[in-house]
Write a structure and sequence with these properties.
0% strand; 191 residues
Amino acid sequence: LYTELGDLLFNSEDMAQQAEAGDEFKAALALNPNDERAELELGMVEARKGNIKAAYADYSRAIELNPNDGDACTEMAMTLMTMNQTEKAQQMFERAVQIDPTNDVAHYRLATLYRKAGKIDAAKEQVQLYLKYKQMKDKMEKIFDDMRLLSPSRPRDDEEGKQQSSSPAANDSPVQQAPAHRQGKIGTGQE
């Protein structure tokens, strides 16, 4: 529960709530020191605050807990780039796309690193993969946004002040049953 609350606070537009997110992730880790997701997201809080060494330590622990987490590998790679460790960052991005081939951010960053290293063909390939998966994710996000717009938040009243239908099935929407869409969170910037 602490991890979920921390996630909501971290993604809030309210800066005060964002600042509280780290406390929730720390509380989650106090209950379960092996909570890889809380460790990862605590690293994201630290990175956003500019605490690169703390972020690095949190990402390292998250990867230790779950070596197959593409998000943790991507966040670690972003931190390594901040630390000017581009070779290690490249390796971590490569690991991230090996784990999750649809990781558009990792493909984009790999393209950048390959281009800087003079690996133009590899960079072009990564740009194509970035565009492919970014378009897919944008399309999915639009569908989820459309579903939220269509989903009734509460029953409506007709002109007589009565509920339009007393049948629960008439007011239930399959859209309400859709899983929540989780926004991607990458490093300290908006990718």
